[in-house]
Design goal:
two-stranded antiparallel sheet; five-stranded antiparallel sheet; mainly beta; 110 residues
Length: 110
């Protein structure tokens, strides 16, 4: 019997990486690891996370660039800054930041 786990973070929430200096907004969640074996193997063994936890897709940024990141739940913490992100895709997906959370932008169907 499998155990049901609830994701600790929500879509639209701004988070920081526990080990590396970047932050981002969550735009999707996988209930367990769902990336390639090559990607997983590229993570150094001493910091490689378990696969049986939620993994989050982030519009991420550090001091130098903006990118998409895939991060395990164990490596994320809430970002208390309430500072908006500069990532260029944030305004395409989300409305303004309120209380550390972006709301998904409603796009009417044509």
């Amino acid at each position: 019997m499998s155990t049901v786990r609830n994701a600790r973070f929500q879509i639209g929430q701004v988070v920081r990486h526990r080990l590396y200096p970047f932050r981002g907004v969550i735009f999707d969640v996988d209930p367990i690891f769902s990336n390639s074996d090559e990607w997983y193997a590229s993570i150094p063994k001493d910091v490689r996370p378990a696969k049986d936890q939620p993994f989050y897709h982030l519009l991420a940024e550090n001091s130098d660039s903006e990118y998409v990141a895939y991060v395990s739940e164990q490596n994320l913490v809430p970002d208390p800054s309430d500072e908006p992100l500069r990532h260029p895709q944030v305004p395409e997906m989300f409305e303004e930041l309120q209380g550390g959370v972006y709301r998904f932008r409603y796009v009417p169907e044509h």
